[in-house]
Amino acid sequence: MNKLRIGIAGLGTVAQGVLHLIATNGDLMAKRTGVQLSIQRVASRTTKPEVDLLGGVFSNNVHDLVADPDVDVILELIGGEGLAKELIESALAAGKRVVTANKAVIAAHGDQLLASGNVPLRFEAAVAGAIPIIQSLNQGLAANRIESIYGIINGTCNYMLTVMEEEGLAFDQVLSQAQALGYAEADPAFDIEGVDAAHKLTILAALGFATSYDFSALYVEGITQIAAEDIQYAQELGFKIKHLGIARNTDAGLETRVHPALVPTSELLASVNGVMNAVQVVSDAAGETLFSGPGAGGAATASAVLADVLTFAATNFSEREPSPPESQGTATQIQRVAMDAIPSACYLRIPTLDQPGVFAQVASALSAHSISIEAVIQKEPSSADTSVSIVILTDMVVESAVNAALKDLAELAAVVGNITRIRVAPTH
Ligand SMILES: NC(=O)c1ccc[n+]([C@@H]2O[C@H](COP(=O)([O-])OP(=O)(O)OC[C@H]3O[C@@H](n4cnc5c(N)ncnc54)[C@H](OP(=O)(O)O)[C@@H]3O)[C@@H](O)[C@H]2O)c1
């Protein structure tokens, strides 16, 4: 039987997941593809004698993988942008196929890395863990014009919003719980400030709309301003709060934005809870398709890494390998819509003094910017409260008008704290 010889860079969660999956399902993979996967080398910072390297030779220098003529495929599983980029570049230059799970490096350098040669670079695991969304965009939906992509693509945010909803806990309490359970990093900024989701949306937008990998073109907002009471008010209005990556083709151009959003409770995306990820793709022929599954974890991510490796296995010994669609140089620049120009309905929670006439002042400040009110929630304060929240759902209004109204509202003497604004997710 033919062999595909693998070199693994890194020996952390995903690399160990890959080794374990080859150990348990390698025979099945060989039956399916006619190719035996073998581990030629593993290179990482620290040796881990307890991990079975399946016969692979260990070294501390990831460049040893490139230098070894017996390595056919390199798996970049170290993360980060510096060494990972260097390794991918040198591997491709040496004619080695590369698989990476690294969304940061693809979001920042995708155009350059994919243009750098005839050798394929694959990255299914970089977006939404186990979900085969990249293959679906590149192949399953290849005959379609994509209209929109909506993703719950950060498990930490989704877990936190779910627990805040189910247990009514404050943001900080849920964050500590998520850290204790290993669902949030010790430094959670990347996840809760939206950067991780933005890396993934950069990739989805580039593939779905055949445009460049342009992280800087995205609007990015995390979930740090969401309070448990926002989740309760949203429920009263018929919504759940989800952290979404949205890429959407409109008459004005391509919207690419990551922020918390109100999703109608009746939508399938609203019922994706906990650490699960989901990506909804709307396209002209296939219509609405929803992909959901675990977005992280050693085994789930290894499943996606090995899906890419097996694509190489399937083509490795044929005479000619087709280039994957993502490296065919079809990227075009699509006009991106500036966040300021995007219209949304908005949820506003405005903390005010409990005094007569305050609602009239708020309504007048909104009206001055032509913002109409769709719904209002105003509850009696408890006897201990000196302030009360006015919660407003606006009609559709362009972002720049909401920003101007928020500035005016903040200057009112009766407004006594930060105003929370959450956009309603657009209908497709
Ligand atoms: N974990 C997930 O669920 C998941 C899901 C999707 C995608 N990913 C992506 O997969 C990649 C790997 O993630 P992971 O969770 O497996 O990370 P990890 O557990 O931190 O493992 C990273 C590995 O790379 C090694 N490493 C780091 N810097 C190195 C260097 N300069 N030279 C040699 N080795 C180095 C580390 O060595 P030490 O052992 O000494 O620390 C560690 O073994 C990342 O790009 C991540 O974004 C992860």
Describe the structure.
- By secondary structure, the protein is α/β, with parallel strands linked by helices.
- The protein has three domains: 2-129 and 297-327, NAD(P)-binding Rossmann-like Domain (Rossmann fold, 3-Layer(aba) Sandwich), CATH 3.40.50.720; 140-293, Dihydrodipicolinate Reductase, domain 2, CATH 3.30.360; 340-424, Alpha-Beta Plaits (2-Layer Sandwich), CATH 3.30.70.
- It has helices at 13-33, 63-67, 82-93, 103-114, 133-140, 155-167, 171-180, 189-192, 195-208, 228-236, 298-316, 358-367, 399-410, and strands spanning 2-9, 35-43, 57-59, 73-76, 97-100, 121-122, 146-152, 219-220, 239-250, 253-264, 276-283, 287-294, 343-344, 346-353, 373-378, 387-394, 397-398, 420-424.
- The strands form three sheets. Strands 7, 8, 9, 10, 11, 12, 14, 15, 16 and 18 form a ten-stranded mixed sheet that branches. A six-stranded parallel sheet has the order 3-2-1-4-5-6, sandwiched between helices. A two-stranded antiparallel sheet has the order 13-17.
- β9 (239-250) and β10 form a beta hairpin.
- The radius of gyration is 24 Å and the shape is elongated.
- Bound molecules: NADP nicotinamide-adenine-dinucleotide phosphate (NAP).
